[in-house]
Amino acid sequence: MTVTPGGDGVTVTLSLRQSGPLAPIVGLFMSRLVRRYVDTEAQRLRRRRERTASAPAS
């Protein structure tokens, strides 16, 4: 995960790196599952940001 400040907030980049001799083959078979995990994490970050943004200032 990379967090880059900018403008009124930040940009978060989620990525997954696979390496090794079997990485291309495993990537073919696991791509849907990996995409689902990355999408789930992105949704969690969005919900957390929305909760934080809507929380009353203390």
Task: Describe this structure as you would to a colleague.
By secondary structure, the chain is of the alpha+beta class. 55% of the residues lie in helices and 17% in strands. The chain is built from 1 helix and 2 strands; from the N terminus they run ββα. A two-stranded antiparallel ribbon has the order 1-2. A hairpin with a 2-residue loop joins strand 1 and strand 2 (9-13). The longest helix is centred in the middle third of the chain and has 32 residues, at 23-54. It is elongated and about 50 Å long. The mean pLDDT is 85.
Task: Order the strands across the largest sheet as they lie in space.
Answer: 1-2
Mean pLDDT comes to 85
Distance between the termini: 29 Å
Structural class: alpha+beta
Q: How would a crystallographer describe the biggest sheet?
A: 2 strands, antiparallel
